């Protein structure tokens, strides 16, 4: 089996072929175009038994990955942190595209349980919508901050409570205050109020669209206490198909809720796992924190862990791992139900 490691950039893809022992067989640099992708397939045709290992670079590697999958190739995604570790232990010094591609290939050999890439489905659309909404929320926050400084310059005594500049009636009151002032500062303030109102309207529209899409994809996950539509969208988009993980433990390692053992002698302890997908990790944290706000199984489990000698932080980590397992189970159930409905529809059509 030959592993083809790829280091992707906006203009080019650098490929390095290695055998099962990690020995370099060949290398090639191609243009990041459809013609270049076809050339890569023709170049790799000399090895009948092969797989591709691409560094997970989102938009940079996505088109190349999709073309390989359409051609029937096997592709695994290699997290960037693994390639950095592979470069440190390599005999070659320095950094270049061939060195990086070689590190990707050797990382894929060292880690046999890497997620297998699949063609993008509805999950990516949810992820794009969620990322767009988060960008708009960030833009609105920056606009609100500028608006507050201009209002402070015009009326230092005015006090607008936090998190109220997203409300239409508050924006209307601010607009009325600005009408009593003249000059450039007041004119800019008017523009900022209009922009905040437009952003708020679009953010709300996106949230409604995300909720409609997620409710059809993972209805069981949405029933989990503490998991709202935006949190479920984050999990769906970042997981990119939960069936690609061989077990709930692999999913926990991917989202960073699997604690790292730091035991020594008679002391058995685990510490925080700072690896994994941090976007997925923060989603698990939000679910845990929300569940802990009201009486229920989460509070009972925390009390049980702390009674057994865990600190509050250690108990929270254990809770997040249990939540990860439950999220994995529910998402797998939703994915299988969706697949079953599609198969039934195809049989009915036949």
Count the domains. 3
Low-confidence runs (pLDDT<50, min 5 residues)?
none
Radius of gyration: 25 Å
Largest beta-sheet characterization? 5 strands, mixed
Give the neighbour order of strands across the main sheet.
Answer: 3-2-1-4-5
Mean pLDDT: 89
Estimate the strand proportion.
5-15%
Instruction: Give the distance, in angstroms, between the N- and C-terminal Cα atoms.
Output: 39 Å
Helix content: 55-70%
Described by the principal axes of the CA atoms, the overall outline is globular
Number of strands: 7
H/E element sequence: EEEHEHEHHHHHHHHEEHHH
Q: What structural keywords apply?
A:
350 residues; alpha/beta; 5-stranded mixed β-sheet; globular
Describe this structure as you would to a colleague:
With 350 residues, the protein is of the alpha/beta class. The protein has 3 domains: 2-110, 2-Layer Sandwich (Nucleotidyltransferase, domain 5), CATH 3.30.420.10; 122-217; 221-349, no CATH class. It is 61% helix and 10% strand. The chain is built from 13 helices and 7 strands. The chain has helices spanning 34-44, 59-70, 80-89, 97-110, 122-154, 168-179, 184-217, 219-222, 229-239, 248-255, 278-292, 297-307, 312-349; strands at residues 2-8, 12-18, 24-31, 50-55, 75-78, 260-261, 270-271. The strands form 2 sheets. The protein has a 5-stranded mixed sheet. A two-stranded antiparallel ribbon has the order 6-7. A hairpin with a 3-residue loop joins strand 1 (2-8) and strand 2. Helix 6 runs antiparallel to helix 7, helix 7 crosses helix 9 and helix 9 (229-239) runs antiparallel to helix 11. The longest helix is centred in the C-terminal third of the chain and has 38 residues, at 312-349. The chain is globular. The protein starts with a strand and ends with a helix. The mean pLDDT is 89.
């Amino acid at each position: 089996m030959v592993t083809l490691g790829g280091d992707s950039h906006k203009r080019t893809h650098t490929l390095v072929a290695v055998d099962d022992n990690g020995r370099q067989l060949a290398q090639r640099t191609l243009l990041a175009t459809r013609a270049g992708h076809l050339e890569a397939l023709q170049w790799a045709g000399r090895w009948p038994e092969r797989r591709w290992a691409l560094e997970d670079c989102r938009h940079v590697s996505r088109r190349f990955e999709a073309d390989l999958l359409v051609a029937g190739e096997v592709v695994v995604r290699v997290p960037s942190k693994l390639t950095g570790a592979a470069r440190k232990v390599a005999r070659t010094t320095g950094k270049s595209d061939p060195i990086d591609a070689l590190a990707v290939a050797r990382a894929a050999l060292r880690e046999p349980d890497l997620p297998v890439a699949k063609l993008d489905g509805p999950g990516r659309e949810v992820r794009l919508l969620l990322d767009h909404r988060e960008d708009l929320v960030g833009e609105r926050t920056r606009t609100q901050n500028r608006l507050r400084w201009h209002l402070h310059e015009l009326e230092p005594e005015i006090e607008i409570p936090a998190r109220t500049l997203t409300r239409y009636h508050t924006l209307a009151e601010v607009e009325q205050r600005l009408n009593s002032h003249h000059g450039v500062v007041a004119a800019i303030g008017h523009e900022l109020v209009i922009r905040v109102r437009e952003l708020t309207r679009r953010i709300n529209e996106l949230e409604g669209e995300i909720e409609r899409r997620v409710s059809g994809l993972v209805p069981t996950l949405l029933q989990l206490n503490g998991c709202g539509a935006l949190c479920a969208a984050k999990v769906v988009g970042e997981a990119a198909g939960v069936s690609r993980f061989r077990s709930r433990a692999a999913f926990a390692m991917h989202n960073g809720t699997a604690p790292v053992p730091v035991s020594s002698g008679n002391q058995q302890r685990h510490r925080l796992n700072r690896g994994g997908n941090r976007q997925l990790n923060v989603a698990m944290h939000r679910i845990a924190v929300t569940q802990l706000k009201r009486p229920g199984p989460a509070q009972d489990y925390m009390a049980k862990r702390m009674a057994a000698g865990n600190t509050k932080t250690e108990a929270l980590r254990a809770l997040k791992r249990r939540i990860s397992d439950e999220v994995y189970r529910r998402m797998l159930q939703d994915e299988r139900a969706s697949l079953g409905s599609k198969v039934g529809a195809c049989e009915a059509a036949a």
